[in-house]
Amino acid sequence: MAHVFSTYSITRTAAGTLTLFALAACSFGPNGEPPAMPAPAHYGAEAQPTQTVPAQGVTQQFVVGAKAVPEWWKQFQSDDLNALVDEGLRNSPTLAATDRSLAAAREQLRAQIGSSLLPSIDAGGQATRERALGIPEAGPNTFLYNVFVGQLQAHYTFDIFGAARLENAALAARVDVQAYQFDAARRALAANIVSAALASATLHAQIDATQRLVTLANEQARDTVRRYDLGAVSHSDALSAQQSAASLAASLPGLRQQWTTTRHALAVLLGRTPDAAPPDLDLARIHVPEQVPVSVPSDLLKSRPDIQAADATLKAAAADVGVATAQMFPSLSLTASMGQGGFSWPVALSGAGAIWSIGASLSQPIFHGGALLAQRRAAVDSYEAATAQYKQTVLAAFQNVADTLAALEHDAQALDAANFAARSARGIFDETSARYRLGAVPVTSTRSSEQQYRNAQLDEIRYTGARLSDTAALFQAMGNPVQDVKPAVEGVARN
């Protein structure tokens, strides 16, 4: 009885020691929690206003604390724009490649978990005919015989200090990084499609207005040359008019090149060839969203995929520190096999042919030339680098939001002024045209007033496009709605 109690005590003590070692593995590295970041009262150098000035009859309101919008492009109320984004998300080869890479990473994680945390069992069979040298004094010097063996082999390494679990946690975190990067790529693709579609529509409208300006400038140049021939103006006046018309005409090819390049880029984003570029949207039928969500900084940390990816990278680096530490501690493995064997099939299949083996191995690193300590120091340095990168990612996200908020405010101010100028110039043009029809002013006055109107219209077109693009940029900057993100694979131990 004393012997049994002694064995029980030893077993309990050993189990308790292993448990303590396993719990100690959790402290082998940092916990991977992101560093505390400042929570600014507002994003920019100045507090953002609650709304912009009214421009083209629309006042945009900044709804502070509102949740990010998942399919934010639908806020522009354009079915054609929605169709373009949906097509791009379905057909983009880049997005499809990223999706497949993510699926492959998840399968690799499952494979690593299965191979590191569960025992491996293999079946094997062998049938050989061999020739061996004999002893000449004992008889013939050659032996011929058969060997038949069939067995199951098992191997298992105890994860006493958590090295395998930490490796799995590191890989799972890296899979999470890829998942967040896929989400970021999807949202970036939608943003690029919206940006390209708006840019193409804006450039198209600019080209139309510029073409009219070129026509007016050419008419003005021809009239000036005729007046020079009649001696009504100087030669320098005629040359100046021709120079102005030529300079204006020279700006058109550059605009057309930008427009063509943008349309080609949009076609590729949609998964099409450049020759199948979609028709331009009607800029006048795209509505500026009147309410724009502005997440508070604490929510932004959870909604931006780039920040979430930096957080997952930090967790992976923390797990790497634990792995590097655990590798300096002992490793215990068990192996076992059982089967049948013999020099003939009847013997191999009989009870006399039963074979088995079982064994254990314990390994403790003693001297590796400082490699293990250097690897741990490298893992710690990588963790500190990931911490700094996380901080920089957060600061860059704050700057991104601050810049787009300021841009929207300034876009509205500029567009309001440009709209007022265009309406005033249009009024002057209409009045001058009426006076010309009555014979009160020459045609040159009408042409001049129309040129002023077209130039003012060009400014309004540019600021309209900028306001739409910056609104899309702010929606994009807000990220996804805040939600709980599940681990890459359930059951993976996190450090």
TrEMBL record:
The keyword Oxidoreductase does not apply. Coiled coil: none annotated. It comes from Paraburkholderia gardini. It is found in: Cell membrane. Pfam families: OEP (PF02321). The keyword RNA-binding does not apply. Residues 1-24 form the signal peptide. Belongs to the outer membrane factor (OMF) (TC 1.B.17) family. It is a lipid-anchor. Transmembrane segments: none annotated. Keywords: Lipoprotein, Membrane, Palmitate, Signal, Transmembrane, Transmembrane beta strand. This is Efflux pump outer membrane protein TtgC. Gene3D superfamilies: Outer membrane efflux proteins (OEP) (2.20.200.10).
